[in-house]
Amino acid sequence: PCPRPATGADERQLIEEAFTNSGTMKEDDTWFLISAIWWRAWEAYTGYGSAPVTNGTFASPIENDNLLLQGSLMKGLRDGTDYMLVPERVWDLLKEWYQGGPPIPRKVIVEGMGTRAMTR
């Protein structure tokens, strides 16, 4: 267990470390989809990436329901627009800190000359 850090900056540091330690996608890895709406709000809280830091707190549970239709992943969703892909360790930390979900795991497969795609 990893208790939720006291500040957004501390969260950002742990998530950056988890991304670094996970490395790039490899075949048979499990990565998770997270709603881009939720992710962008979290980025604003922590200053992750190039997001400017907002003042205040952030305690919203992960909400992936906007990616699902009757329990199945909606068709036509786009990486980086509708959802973000995160490695399992990043998902585990965020899920522990914020609860919510549901989890949407995907296995990495390799197509063609190293192009990666996600499967069920």
Plain-language structure description:
With 120 residues, this protein is of the alpha+beta class. Helices cover 31% and strands 26% of the residues. The chain has three helices and eight strands; from the N terminus they run H-E-H-E-E-E-E-H-E-E-E. It has helices spanning 8-22, 36-46, 88-98, and strands at residues 30-35, 62-63, 68-69, 72-73, 83-87, 100-101, 105-111, 115-119. The strands form three sheets. A four-stranded antiparallel sheet has the order 5-1-7-8. It has a two-stranded parallel sheet with strand order 2-6. A two-stranded antiparallel sheet has the order 3-4. Helix 1 (8-22) runs antiparallel to helix 3 (88-98).
